[in-house]
Amino acid sequence: MTQQQDQTIKSRPMTGPLEGIPLPDLDRLPDYERGFWEATHNNELRIQKCSACEMFRHLPTPMCPHCHSLEYLWTRVSGKGVVYSFVVVRNPVHPAIREKDQVPYNISLIELEEQEGLRVCSNVLNIAPEDIYVNMPVQVTFMPTVDEPNVVLPLFVPSK
Amino acid sequence: MTTNSADVNGIRDKAAIIGIGETEFSFDSGRSELQLASEAIKAACDDAGISPHDIDGLVRYEMDTNLETMVVQSLGIKNLRHWESVSYGGGAGNAVVGHAAAAISAGYCNYVVCFRAANLRSQLRLGQARNPSRIAGGQGVFAAPFGSMAPAHQFSLFVRRYMHEYGATSEHFGWVAVTLREHASRNPRALRRTPITLDDHQNSRMVVDPLHLLDICQENDGAAAIVMTTPDRAKNLRHADTLTLVEAAAQGSGPLNEGVIYRPDIAMSESVNTARDLWARANLGPKDMDALMFYDHFTPFCLFNLEAYGFVPFGEAKDFVQGGHNIRFDGMLPTNTHGGNHSEAYIHGLTHTQEAVRLIRGTSTAQPPNKTINRVLSCSSVAQLSAAVIIRRG
């Protein structure tokens, strides 16, 4: 049995945002993207919802890809969801990840409970990467980044 | 009844591949990307038996740093009548061949070249994060802050979901790696020729779980080129004995790179649409193919493509690749007989079409024994972008 397969040796959980990596420049984001980050700054997860057909969408777009309306509302969601897919990065490809010894970390795709196929990219905290699984229930939490405290990331923790 | 325009095959057998050429592949070419392009195009012209001065059409990769004007200047092209570029890197693989065939079919030019030349190891490495510290908008804003900064990150999200839905395991991907390396071990052009075992694959460093190091294509320097003309002209050129025709081509695009992880079914690549169009245009199916060249940026894409193009039902590719027998050069479906991006060289898919030509000519270093290769499917799926061509013996 190889070391990677040995489930008895577990990696450390993530406890907060990664440091030193690219972040949104809030002043330069287009309006249809800025609302997401304005909401997380208030510790709320808000997703674009079309005012005409009422479909949620993420990634944000200026036009509804379903009915082509330009009207939308940043609509608050529960922050509850499941892990749709996840990966564990063990090889650092960014200098700050390497220099600050931030591997391993997980990248997780969270499917939100409001709509099938409505997903956000994030990290799952407080759990060894070996214990994350597809369909694991999670709940959003909010943490400011170290590098730019105005940028608050929506992160997820395992649900009770 | 109105015919679906997507099913009309306007290029069928109207373009012949008359020459293929490449530079040596390396981890540090020591020369400019323009020189690499010039050398590969010259080599393809030599193989065809024409002069670079005869070229009057170019199809480049949008990602290539060599613009048409630079190539015209370097090769002394007299009258470039037609040029175009196909977007992206690996996503343009095979698509450039389809575009070039269309240009010949339309009569826009007489001799068209597709090429890709890049120092993807000694200069810009696509596998490394190269994002700025602040992002002013776009898909990266919603992924990079969470550490998704390289192709392997987003593609691994596909792979994990695929494994979940279809029960494929890392060992299935390992059999692809072992087989590609075995093919490369016979190929003097290949950068990585030392055979590997399934244990070597399983024990190789985990880069982005579920992908091991030996699931991921190498990064290297080099260039490749393909030259085409009409079948009539081809009959008077060097490879007149083996006419190699482009029988059909197709392309498909999904949403943005990162955007693709938000669509309804991420475990199924865009190739499903491309495959439908390709088979309809060609009026052929997977059973008509004698070999498969697939774009192997990551080994799991072997399984994705086997299913998307209908060689096996969804969920059964893992059984098909198990043990490697079926995809070996002497197996039921010889696959990436050159060793692919994985072990030969990573030239954004152009080497795959070149290998299809070699198989038709009977000059592959892993030529299937006791089997005439009449048709080869060369396809690329970068998940959200896909393209395919059928290369056939004329």
Relative helix content of chain B: 25-40%
End-to-end distance of chain B, in Å? 32 Å
Quick one: CATH class of chain B?
A: Alpha Beta
Could you tell me the radius of gyration of chain B in angstroms? 20 Å
The total of helices of chain A stands at 2
Secondary structural class of chain B: alpha/beta
Helix share, percent of chain A: 10-25%
Q: Please give the domain count of chain B.
A: 1
- Tally of helical runs of chain B: 12
> If interface size is counted as residues with C-beta under 8 Å from the partner's C-beta, which chains form the largest one?
A-B, 48 and 48 residues
**What assembly state would you assign to the polypeptide chains in this entry?**
heterodimer
Tell me about the largest β-sheet of chain B. Answer: 5 strands, mixed
Structural class of chain A: mainly beta
Q: What is the residue-averaged pLDDT of chain A?
A: 94
What does this structure look like?
The complex is a heterodimer of chains A (160) and B (394). Chain A is mainly β. Chain A has one domain. Chain A is 10% helix and 32% strand. Chain A has helices at 31-41, 95-99, and strands at residues 23-24, 46-50, 56-57, 72-76, 80-89, 105-112, 119-122, 137-144, 152-158. The longest helix of chain A has 11 residues, at 31-41. Chain B contains 12 helices and 12 strands. Chain B has helices spanning 33-48, 68-75, 95-106, 151-166, 170-184, 198-203, 231-234, 271-282, 300-308, 317-321, 340-343, 350-361; strands at residues 16-22, 57-61, 82-86, 112-119, 134-135, 206-209, 211-212, 221-229, 244-253, 291-294, 375-381, 385-393. In chain B, a hairpin with a 3-residue loop joins strand 11 and strand 12. Chain B is globular. The two termini of chain B are 32 Å apart. At the A-B interface, strand 1, strand 5, strand 6 and strand 7 of A face strand 5, helix 4 and strand 6 of B.
